[in-house]
C-alpha cells in the first residue's frame, strides 16, 4: 500500500563519500534561479503582508538576508539586501498599523519577528536606522510579560513568550549586541515557568511544567513543550537553581515520551507505525484576538491534526540539552530521530521547512554539526537532490504561498545555502548554537 504522507527513500546510505556535483558550481545557480522565481511571486503591497515571517513577505526578506550573509553569494549580496529592505519596509508599516498589541509581540506570525528581521537587514546594509525597529522590538517585552497575556496560550513559539525570547536570541547572534536587559529576560523566563507550573498543577500533571495552545497540549516545536523548554535552556544562566531543576526535569520527561524514535504531536497520543511523520512543526525533525495570520495558521494546525503527524523539531531541544551538559543520552535521542527522518522524511507536503523535505533535511545538518559525521551531510545532500526530481515535483502537494519561508521555496533556499556552509548551518530563526 502506497504511503500517502512520504515518498519511499530508495537512496543507498552513506558509503564513505559525499555526492559529487553538489558543490557551489551546481548549487549557486539553482539558488539564484529559485530566488528569481520567488521574487516574481512575492506580493509587496501592504494589504498582502499578513502571515509574518511564517508565510508572509517578511519571510522572503529574511531568506534574502540569509543568502546575502553567505560569502559564496558576494556578487548578489547588494541587490539581495536592497530587495530585502524594500520587502521588509512594507512589512514594518503593516506591523506598525496592527491594532492588536498582542499580535505585534508575536514572533513568527506578527510584529516582533518583522522588527527583528528589519533590524538585521538594516544593520547588514550599514544603516544606523537599524536601531528604530530594534527599539520597537525591545518595547514589546512588556506586552508578553503578564502571565496570561494570551487567552489561547501565552508561552509557545509562534505568538507567545518563547517566540519573543527566540527572536531576541537570533538578534543577539546576528547583531552581536545585548538585546534585552538581564532583568527583562529573567522576568519573561519566570513568567514562562510560573505559567507552566500553574498549568501542570491545575491539570494534575506528574511533571513540573506543561503548556497548552488552543486547549491542546502540544509537544513539538511549533506550539509545544519542546520549543518552550529549548528557549528556557538557551537562557538558563538567567534562571535560579530551582528553576533550572524544573526545566531539566521537564526535558527528561519529554525524552521519556519517545515512541519508536518519535514523539506524538500532543501529550497522551499514541503513534501508530503507519501514521509516523517527522515534521519540524509537530515531529522528530521540531492571541485573544485572532486575526488573519493566526486564522491562516490555525487552518494548518487543524489539517495537521486531521492527518496524524509527529514532532522533527523535538530533536533541536535535545541537541540544546546535549550542547549544555554533554550527557550522551540527549545526543543518542537526536541520532535516533535522525534515523527515522532518513526512513520517512521525504515528505509529500512540499519543499518547505515546517513540514516538507527541507525541514527534514535540516535535522541531518544539525546532526552533522553535533557529531562531525559526514554521513549526515551525505543524507542532507540526498534530500536536496530529491527536491529537484520529477518524482517529487509530480507527487508532492502544491503550496498556496510558494514564496513563503516555512511552507514554500524561501525555506528551501535557506537549506540549499546552508548545505554549502554546513559548519554554520542552522534551522532558520531557531538557533541551538547560541
UniProtKB/TrEMBL annotation:
It comes from Cyprinodon variegatus. Zn(2+) binds at residues 281, 354-355. Belongs to the LanC-like protein family. InterPro entries: 6hp_glycosidase-like_sf (IPR012341), LANC-like (IPR007822), LanC-like_prot_euk (IPR020464). The keyword Membrane applies. One of its GO terms (cellular component) is plasma membrane. CDD domains: euk_LANCL (cd04794). Keywords: Membrane, Metal-binding, Transmembrane, Transmembrane helix, Zinc. The keyword Zinc applies. This is LanC like family member 3. PANTHER family: LANC-LIKE PROTEIN, LANC-LIKE PROTEIN 3. It comes from the Eukaryota. One of its GO terms (biological process) is carbohydrate metabolic process. GO terms for molecular function: metal ion binding. The chain crosses the membrane at residues 103-122.
Amino acid at each position: 500500500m502506497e504511503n500517502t504522507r512520504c515518498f519511499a527513500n530508495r537512496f543507498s546510505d552513506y558509503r564513505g563519500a559525499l555526492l559529487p556535483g553538489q558543490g557551489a558550481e551546481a548549487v549557486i545557480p539553482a539558488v539564484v534561479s529559485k530566488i528569481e522565481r520567488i521574487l516574481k511571486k512575492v506580493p509587496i503591497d501592504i494589504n498582502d503582508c499578513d502571515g509574518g515571517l511564517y508565510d508572509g513577505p517578511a519571510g522572503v526578506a529574511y531568506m534574502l538576508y540569509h543568502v546575502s550573509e553567505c560569502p559564496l553569494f558576494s556578487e548578489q549580496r547588494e541587490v539581495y539586501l536592497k530587495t530585502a529592505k524594500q520587502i521588509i519596509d512594507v512589512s514594518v508599516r503593516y506591523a506598525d498599523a496592527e491594532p492588536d498589541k498582542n499580535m505585534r509581540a508575536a514572533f513568527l506570525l506578527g510584529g516582533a519577528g518583522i522588527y527583528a528581521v528589519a533590524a538585521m537587514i538594516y544593520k547588514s546594509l550599514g544603516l544606523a536606522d537599524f536601531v528604530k525597529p530594534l527599539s520597537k522590538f525591545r518595547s514589546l517585552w512588556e506586552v508578553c510579560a503578564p502571565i496570561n497575556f494570551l487567552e489561547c496560550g501565552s508561552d509557545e513559539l509562534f505568538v507567545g513568550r518563547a517566540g519573543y525570547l527566540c527572536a531576541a536570541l537570533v538578534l543577539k547572534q546576528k547583531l552581536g549586541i545585548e538585546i534585552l536587559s538581564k532583568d527583562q529576560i529573567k522576568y519573561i523566563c519566570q513568567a514562562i515557568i510560573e505559567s507552566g507550573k500553574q498549568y501542570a498543577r491545575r491539570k494534575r500533571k506528574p511533571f513540573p511544567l506543561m503548556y497548552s495552545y488552543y486547549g491542546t497540549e502540544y509537544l513539538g516545536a511549533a506550539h509545544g513543550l519542546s520549543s518552550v523548554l529549548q528557549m528556557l535552556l538557551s537562557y538558563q544562566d538567567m534562571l535560579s537553581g530551582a528553576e533550572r531543576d524544573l526545566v531539566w526535569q521537564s526535558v527528561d520527561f519529554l525524552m521519556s515520551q519517545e515512541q519508536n524514535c518519535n514523539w506524538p504531536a500532543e501529550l497522551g497520543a499514541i503513534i501508530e507505525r503507519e501514521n509516523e511523520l517527522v515534521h519540524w512543526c509537530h515531529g522528530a525533525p521540531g492571541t485573544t484576538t485572532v486575526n488573519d495570520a493566526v486564522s491562516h495558521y490555525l487552518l494548518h494546525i487543524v489539517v495537521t491534526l486531521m492527518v496524524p503527524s509527529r514532532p522533527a523539531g523535538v530533536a533541536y531541544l535535545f541537541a540544546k540539552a546535549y550542547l549544555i551538559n554533554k550527557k550522551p543520552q540527549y545526543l543518542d535521542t537526536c541520532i535516533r530521530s535522525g534515523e527515522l527522518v532518513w526512513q520517512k522524511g521525504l515528505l509529500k507536503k512540499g519543499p518547505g521547512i515546517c513540514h516538507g523535505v527541507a525541514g527534514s533535511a535540516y535535522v541531518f545538518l544539525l546532526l552533522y554539526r553535533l557529531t562531525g559525521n559526514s554521513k549526515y551531510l551525505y543524507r542532507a545532500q540526498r534530500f536536496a537532490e530529491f527536491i529537484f526530481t520529477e518524482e517529487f515535483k509530480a507527487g508532492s502537494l502544491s503550496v498556496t504561498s510558494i514564496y513563503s519561508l516555512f511552507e514554500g521555496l524561501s525555506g528551501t533556499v535557506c537549506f540549499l545555502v546552508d548545505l554549502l556552509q554546513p559548519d554554520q548551518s542552522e534551522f532558520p530563526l531557531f538557533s541551538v548554537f547560541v
